[in-house]
């Protein structure tokens, strides 16, 4: 038996308890009362005896359930025994087939890995699920989306791309890092990572110049390179989005919705730790999470500022003084379904309508910060038209002192290219958009707005 086979056998023996734990987690997830990652980590905290491998499998299967909830729930109706067990078994089967965990990447070998836990009368039933031809499923079952989101995709991509987009969102996302160029260079970090062994197998991201993609999902927190701030976890798309702002050395820049600072840290490094970069957010907790990341980043130009709301006096005091503003607006997050599949079940047309109002209000306040000639990037990780183009159009209708700049023109000399266009731009749009089925990133939207020089 090879080391890999031994590991697989050890994991397979532990599966009966996985089914039980997973059944409890899925029952809790189906209430949709809290974000899925919070539900899963709370469960692990209250079950401290679960090992790392158990946790990895339970977490992966919980997210597989959320991604394929329609298919799994519908098929589960046909089984026997407690519903939680049926859902757990189907989710484990999906995980085994898709992620290559256990010895199987196909239905039969995935089933063999479940042999320790399935009852004889469940085998045929699982086999039937594992061999369903996906293209025979009804459209909404196949895409595992609520109808309103499936319909909304058509306003974001051409009709013939809706299915490939929806299918791409059913896959788990890769783990990407951004190299902190204040401390090291990508080639050097790739060397360090690849010396750490197979689970870190790292390669450059296809487009982002400072991105690294890891093949596995290794624990990062304990690694020296991570503790010392040589890299941060950041999806390639998010890295590219921050690059739309193109901040320069010595400028005054505001990251209006900085959160825990994913993009703030990218912007600070692009500014070579010079000038002044304000990181605003209404969430004290998120800004508190930025501080340790900032401390290890080596940046000295970032100033976190808690604001009460977008019209806070601290914002008004900087009106007309800022060169560049990033508005990474709070949004439905429906572009990140690969990572946050619970969002498709937790958002609704009503929640999107409320977000749209908030987004317009934040954009309007943030825009007042700009000097004449200054650039604002309005961005979301949504693919819903109302949160994206809809907000920008409403803003421009009320603010004629701003104009939309075509990213094809603005980015031509400075941005990573895909074919003959800057990545994320297209011949027939003046907006910037990334999609999982085209770019292999989460879906992101960006609009480049400039305050006209004469006003
Ligand atoms: C998409 S997240 C930002 C993610 C962050 N830029 C990053 O790259 O990690 C949106 C953020 O907007 C913040 N937010 C919500 N309402 C806000 C407001 N009125 N003014 C400023 N920030 C706000 C939220 O607290 C949240 O951190």
From TrEMBL:
Domain SAM-dependent MTase RsmB/NOP-type: residue ranges: 165-452
Pfam families membership: Methyltr_RsmB-F (PF01189), RsmF-B_ferredox (PF22458)
InterPro entries assigned: MeTrfase_RsmB-F_NOP2_cat, MeTrfase_RsmB-F_NOP2_dom, RCMT, RsmB-like_ferredoxin, SAM-dependent_MTases_sf
Active site as annotated: 381 (nucleophile)
Keyword S-adenosyl-L-methionine in annotation: yes
Keyword set, alphabetical order: Methyltransferase, RNA-binding, S-adenosyl-L-methionine, Transferase
DNA repair found in the keyword field: no
Annotated family: Belongs to the class I-like SAM-binding methyltransferase superfamily. RsmB/NOP family.
Protein name: rRNA methyltransferase
């Amino acid at each position: 038996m090879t080391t890999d086979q031994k590991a697989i056998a050890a994991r397979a023996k532990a599966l009966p308890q996985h089914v039980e734990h997973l059944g409890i987690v899925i029952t809790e997830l189906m209430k949709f009362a809290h974000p899925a990652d919070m539900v899963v980590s709370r469960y692990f905290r209250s079950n401290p005896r679960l090992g790392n491998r158990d946790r990895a499998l339970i977490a992966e299967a919980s997210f597989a359930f959320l991604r394929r909830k329609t298919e799994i729930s519908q098929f589960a109706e046909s089984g026997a025994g407690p519903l939680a067990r049926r859902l757990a078994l189907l989710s484990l089967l999906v995980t085994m087939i898709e992620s290559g965990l256990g010895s199987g990447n196909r239905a039969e070998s995935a089933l063999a890995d479940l042999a320790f836990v399935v009852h004889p009368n469940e085998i045929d039933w699982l086999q039937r699920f594992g061999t369903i031809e996906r293209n025979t499923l009804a459209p909404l079952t196949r895409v595992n989306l609520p109808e309103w989101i499936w319909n909304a995709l058509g306003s974001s991509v051409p009709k013939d791309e809706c299915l490939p987009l929806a299918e791409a969102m059913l896959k788990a996302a890769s783990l990407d890092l951004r190299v902190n160029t204040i401390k090291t260079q990508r080639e050097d970090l790739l060397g360090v990572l690849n010396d750490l062994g197979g689970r870190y197998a790292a390669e450059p991201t296809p487009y982002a110049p400072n991105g690294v993609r890891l093949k596995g999902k290794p624990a990062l927190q304990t690694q020296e390179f991570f503790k010392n701030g040589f890299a941060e976890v950041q999806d390639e798309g998010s890295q590219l989005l921050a690059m739309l702002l193109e901040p320069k050395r010595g400028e005054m820049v505001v990251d209006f919705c900085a959160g825990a600072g994913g993009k703030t840290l990218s912007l600070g490094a692009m500014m070579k730790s010079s000038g002044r970069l304000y990181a605003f957010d209404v969430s004290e907790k998120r800004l508190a999470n930025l501080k340790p990341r900032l401390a290890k980043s080596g940046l000295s130009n970032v100033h976190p500022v808690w604001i009460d709301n977008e019209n806070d006096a601290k914002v008004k005091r900087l009106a007309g003084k800022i060169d560049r503003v990033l508005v990474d607006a709070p949004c439905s997050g429906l572009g990140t379904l690969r990572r946050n599949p619970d969002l498709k079940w937790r958002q609704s047309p009503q929640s999107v309508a409320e977000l749209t109002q908030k987004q317009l209000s934040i954009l309007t306040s943030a825009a007042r910060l700009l000097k004449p000639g200054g650039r604002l990037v309005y961005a979301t990780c949504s693919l819903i038209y109302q949160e994206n183009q809809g907000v920008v159009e409403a803003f421009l209708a009320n603010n004629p002192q701003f104009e939309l700049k075509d990213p094809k023109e603005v980015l031509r000399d400075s941005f990573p290219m895909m074919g003959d266009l800057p990545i994320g731009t297209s011949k027939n749009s003046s907006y910037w958009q990334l999609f999982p089925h085209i770019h292999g990133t989460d879906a992101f939207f960006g609009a480049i707005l400039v305050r006209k020089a004469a006003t």
